[in-house]
């Protein structure tokens, strides 16, 4: 399979796991040394484990992903690294209330064996026009 298609499939798998609120499957899409930069947090998370701890805290407070749709996906191959950029429309439940989010995301994938695993994720708010 073409590497661009492999990266697109890896991104689709990650989004599908997130959209279905499947914690185990979602975190399996990331390398252990992955880093995360989210506009909703005051500082970067420097490992998958750090993100898992934050995620568990969110879930304890009633957080759940209700759905997520990816659009406008672009892939840039850089050797053993690929950059995937897209827009995401996410529905979440937080403290009993549903919220709709429109964000832009960059996910950096690194080829590990035959798999492309996410090694960095940057989520940002879409600025109003």
UniProtKB/TrEMBL annotation:
InterPro entries found in the cross-reference section: NTF2-like_dom_sf, SnoaL-like
Domain SnoaL-like: 7-126
SUPFAM superfamilies: NTF2-like (SSF54427)
One Pfam assignment: SnoaL_3
Highest taxon, organism lineage: Bacteria
Protein name, per record: Nuclear transport factor 2 family protein
